[in-house]
Amino acid sequence: MLEALKNKKVLVLGLAKTGMSVARHLKSHGALVTVNDWAPLDENPDAQQLVQENIRVISGGHPQSLLEEDFAFMVKNPGIPYSNPMVVKAQEKGLPIITDIELANLLGEAMIIGITGSNGKTTTTQLTYDILSEADNSNGKTLLGGNIGIPTLDVADESKSEDRLVFELSSFQLMGTQQFHPHIAAILNIYPSHLDYHGSLEGYMSAKWQITKNQTKEDYLILNVDQHYFDDANTEAKRIYFTTDKNKQADAWFDYDHQVFMWQEEKVADRSDFPLPGEHNLANALVAIAIAKLLDVSNASIRHTLQHYQGVDHRLQYIGKINHRNFFNDSKATNNEAAITALKSFTTPVIWLAGGLDRGISLTEIAPYLEPVKAVVALGETAETVSDFAEANNIPVLGKAQNMDEAVNLAMTNSQEGDTILLSPAHASWDQYDSFEQRGDKFISAFEQWKKDKGE
């Protein structure tokens, strides 16, 4: 494939991180690259950078006349829909259209582990990577990439045959695959998502199923036995099932009676080994465990990683303990649905830190999920709204915090041993912070400062 790229004309449609990576790697393999991006050159730092690297850039629109050139294929940014006129015209002309993961499959030599689904992809991918990274793999490395923020080509192009590539894969990426071939593929779950892009739930499911399109009987496909979307779908891969339902059987399952993670009839780890709360995180852990067991990772190694796993930054991230109070940073919870997921994850008493940018959205739909909440610290622009909501549901309000230091202090001085202190704002961050990441980082800093000054 490397020789086949030399002097081939390739069109890269769309920039951002993925397009930049694709353009650079294609050029490094001798392809004659043309990048086409919608944003004008003077407003497009990425395009300006590629011009300096002697890569041809056509910006400020998608001129269909560009397709008159003799391109061998197009690499489309996953975020550009197939309904885009430039893409439609390319399809009409018979120009092959792929996404970055197809190139990663062609250029990389390593085994691919691909993880997709509607929810939980990032947590499961990161946990799988952590388990495999810490396990012995003789001379090989485990590399992380994909929809997790690391372009697939950046890791695939440097990989060797003894390595393992762990990719988080979106439906947008999978829709453009032709020869993509993971040795282990996992579909965590399916919920209606991105229907504007795929046109229907069936279109969305079809894109997800592309992950197993080229698998053989030597490969594995991990599926959720609690859902039935793919019961009748065809694959040559060996099906491996997981479940969090105590009444169902699967290869990877959770024994609720003994609170242990199981692989077939073998105990792998205790629930207490894994700090992330919630049934959804049980499912995420079971998939990572299944992948690890298929690759012969020892239970001791799996347990060690589970015990030290903090989760994905700002997504129900366990950040530590002060005086027997557990702290969780869920700053990415910028809406009601995400906050509900967080609150449903706890049975211990919760001091809930909530509030942020005022978008005029009611909190009423959260009310049925307030059972674990013993008190609230109200934050930001909607502090008054959050306070009124808490009081209407007979939950004490500890105060309206002006910043995260004040919020942590209010929570700590009004809590007891065994309580959980949870930042899950249910609002965007832009009233006080540049991003949800900055908000979460401020919370972590306040936690660390309190622990340093007053913790046992």
UniProtKB/TrEMBL annotation:
The UniProt record lists the keyword Lipid biosynthesis: no
Organism of provenance: Aerococcus suis
Assigned keywords, A-Z: ATP-binding, Cell cycle, Cell division, Cell shape, Cell wall biogenesis/degradation, Cytoplasm, Ligase, Nucleotide-binding, Peptidoglycan synthesis
Purpose: Cell wall formation. Catalyzes the addition of glutamate to the nucleotide precursor UDP-N-acetylmuramoyl-L-alanine (UMA).
SUPFAM superfamilies referenced in this protein's UniProt entry, alphabetically: MurCD N-terminal domain, MurD-like peptide ligases, catalytic domain, MurD-like peptide ligases, peptide-binding domain
NCBIfam families documented for this protein: murD
Keyword set includes Electron transport: no
Stated family: Belongs to the MurCDEF family.
Domain of life: Bacteria
GO molecular function: ATP binding; UDP-N-acetylmuramoylalanine-D-glutamate ligase activity
A Gene Ontology term for the protein's cellular component: cytoplasm
Protein known as: UDP-N-acetylmuramoylalanine--D-glutamate ligase
